[in-house]
Description:
The chain is mainly α.
Amino acid sequence: MVTGSRFLKADGDGYRSSASRRLGIRIFAGILSLIAGRRITDPTSGLRMVDHRGIELFARDYPHDYPEVEAAVLLHFHQLRGAEIPVQMRPRTTGVSSINPTRSVYYMVKVLLAILVGVLRARPNVEPGDRAPVTAEHSI
């Protein structure tokens, strides 16, 4: 999986969000870096690309609540590689974030619990060429 990181710009002029949000991202980055054994700078980036093995894995078992953070844990435990590349992201021009100051503590606790569950839970084995099971909701 390749993740577009807001924080790897060569000129040091990366994306700047609020101080509380940056602190939360750093906490998640530190925990995920320890779990994965490699540096992760932007665990909440939604800009991701995967190859066929990543698609096969996520077709079987994609995290729903906090997919950006949980997907990094899932990839690590399935021994798939991850990398980050620098990307430029601009601030929001319309709409409002669902993570406001009041909900940020709640979000932090929920994501930390999701990471813990991701580390402790059983995972299906996904081998190259495996197909995701077809269920009623996925059939045409």
